[in-house]
Amino acid sequence: MTFVMHLAQCYHMNRVKNMLLFIMLFLSQNFFAQNKWTLDDCVAYALTHNLTLDNLRYATESNKEIYKQSYRDLLPSISANSSYNIQYGRSVDPNNNTIISTDFFSNNYSLSASLDIFRGFQKMNSIKAANFLYKATKEEELQEKYLLAFRVMSAFYDILFFQELVTIAKEQEKISLKNYRLVIKQIELGLKAGVDKYEAESLLITDRLKITQSENSLKAAKLQLIQEMNLENTSVIEIDTILEDIEKQEGKYNVEADSVYQKSLSFIPIIRAQEFRVKAAKKDIAVARSSLMPSLSLSGGYGTGYFETNTNDLNEVIPFKTQIRDNASQFIGFSLRIPISDGWSVRSRVKQQKIALDRASNNLEIQKQELNKLIRELVQNYRATQNEYSQTKQNEKARFLAFSISQKRYDKGLISAIELFQSKNLYATAQNENLQVKLKLKVQRKTIDFYEGLPVFTINKNN
């Protein structure tokens, strides 16, 4: 009975150990899976750790504060003043305006306010101009976010390319190693001469060199992505290598440059930013012209004071509280200013603002022209890459068949190692070309999607 219980306990302990081992393996797999970066992860990290974007955020915050202040400028201007004066030697008695030689002190207090009633709509136009400039800087910040996202995407796909290149190089090395071992056996059986060993060994070393070169290129690509992301304290990064099926995606796309361009005009940040700057320049002209118009303002105030020379009939200094009450005075008034001549300085500012408007409008047309040119080149290159991809894929299949035949002929001793190497090298080159075109097609497709307004990147446009 004791033996049976002992077996049961051992079984239970082994079961617990197996469960713990399974949990540890599961957690470790999840841990390493979480360390793999997707493209969205890379872009999101880069957007929150880029120093250039920080500068643009500061510029946006500054223009936002300028915009808020333009509203506050509509409020009345209020100021309070106080003074304490000690008179020495000859001075004017504030009671009777006579000259005295007595030292005395005085206190003065005043509160005043002024409000612009009309200034040629200067402040309202300033508010609108500040708002347009604030929106322009927000769009410029968003433009830089998209540019950063594209740089990250380019580095991301470079890693994918070189990872696949390493895989291809290792497959080629396996073939060469297999052939090298086959040659060794054939030499031992007397079927091949000793010189064939050196040829096979040379081909194997060449393939191993290609692996090293591809791995070095992969390290450089990873470093580029790390730098674009501003990922600190690390030199290693692993990315998610899952790619969509190119054939399934490309079959449903038929893009036209004019259609893409018209869609992009409504949301591309650099275009919207320049449109806002044109609107701001128009309001700046109105602000400059307002100085040519009459201005009307309302002002009012309260003042009082205490003077040591203020005495009553008994020649006693009147108390502070009494003087503050009795010396009080108030005023209210309107001020009208009509500009007549200022050396044409205002008209000169108006002309300068008109020139600034022409410059902003011209910059807008330049940006539109550059965008149109970029999209047309992108669509044309995309169509060319589609054709290239179809051809490189067929070429890869053909080269694979040719290499398979060469391998069989080499195994039978019908061709030399050099001839086999040439066939294998052509197959590897075809693989590389097809991979390169495939990834280029993917990047171009994502870029066109962006200009068509599709959500390529997860970017907060309002922040």
Q: Which structural traits does this protein have?
A:
single chain; 463 residues; alpha+beta; Outer membrane efflux proteins (OEP); 3 domains; four-stranded antiparallel β-sheet; two-stranded parallel ribbon; 11 helices; 12% strand; disordered N terminus
Silhouette: elongated
- In oligomeric terms, what are we looking at? single chain
What order do the strands of the largest sheet run in, or round the barrel if closed?
2-5-7-8
Please count the beta strands (DSSP E, at least 2 residues each): 8
Helix amount, in percent? 55-70%
Count of distinct structural domains = 3
Percent strand: 5-15%
Report on the biggest sheet.
Answer: 4 strands, antiparallel
Integer-rounded radius of gyration: 41 Å
Q: What CATH architecture of the largest domain would you give?
A: Up-down Bundle
Q: Briefly note the structural class of the backbone.
A: alpha+beta
Pattern of helices and strands: HEHHEEEEHHEHHHEHEHH
CATH topology of the largest domain: Outer membrane efflux proteins (OEP)
Q: What secondary-structure arrangement, pairings included, does this model have?
A:
Layout: H1 2-34, E1 36-37, H2 39-49, H3 51-72, E2 77-87, E3 91-92, E4 99-100, E5 104-118, H4 122-188, H5 195-229, E6 238-239, H6 246-250, H7 257-264, H8 269-290, E7 295-307, H9 320-326, E8 329-337, H10 345-411, H11 417-451
Parallel strand pairs: 1-6
Antiparallel strand pairs: 2-5, 3-4, 5-7, 7-8
In short, what is this structure?
The protein has 463 residues and is an alpha+beta fold.
